Single Cache domain-containing protein (Pseudomonas fluorescens), 281 residues
Amino acid sequence: MRLWLGNTWVGWLLLLCLGPLQAAPSVDDGAAARALLEKALGYYHDQGDMAFAAFSRQGEFVDHDRYVFVVDTQGVMLASGGPSSALIGRDVSQVLGPDLRKAFKQALKTPEGNGIQQAEYRWQNWADGKIERKHVYFQRVGERILAVGYYQPRASAEQARALLERAATALSTDRNGTLKAINQLQGGFLEDDLYVFVVDMDSRRYLAHGTNLRLLNTDFAKIRDPEGKPVGEPMLALMAREDQGEYQYRWKNPVTGKVEDKHAYLRKVGNLLVAVGYYSP
């Protein structure tokens, strides 16, 4: 339990230190989280610190996995409608390393007049126990920071391209070590619903797969989507003509468990087809 709480607070402090987001959040989740924060800000304007009681119980300030939480500028949790309510009243700044403590103090200099800010960080999802990406909206009001966040099950196209670049570079310098790392879920080659898979274009068989080891050594050319549409053969044909490309198909999202539209980025590294795809809502 202590480890989970510590990671929670490290994640919260990181969100303040990361600054503005580069990628836009999902419209529905983003709008709902921002609306909940705006509602909380209005309530806090009217009630002041008396609002903390309402923020800390299951009610109008909790919306599914979105909830309001409040921290003061000294690092003390003042209110939370989520699992971190167990930390209310605790000064978390004392459990941080010196570098994070210094970064937190810098983040607290954000002027109140800057309005609602956004950031992204990684936090343990209490519903499934996984470390997942979370997007947060927050605003400083005097000596308080009010915030609402939500989990993001889908990575972006930019993140998929970045992961493909890392995997291609690693394979070109250490082929065997990288294949082993991908298959052992190590080396940073698995991020939320993003994963790498690698196919030997000569044998046309999987050499590595970031989520399904049962596919190793199977014939990639015979792979089809859940509706029977060819997936492997078109990708192999494309890579026989080009050094890189893109392909769209339907596939099961390992995070949501649902069959969704997937857009794959492909790269040729020697005789290897390397791919990373992202899922569309």
Notes: Residues 14 and 249 are 35 Å apart (CA to CA). The chain has a mean pLDDT of 81. The longest strand covers residues 131-141. The chain is about 30% helix and 30% strand.
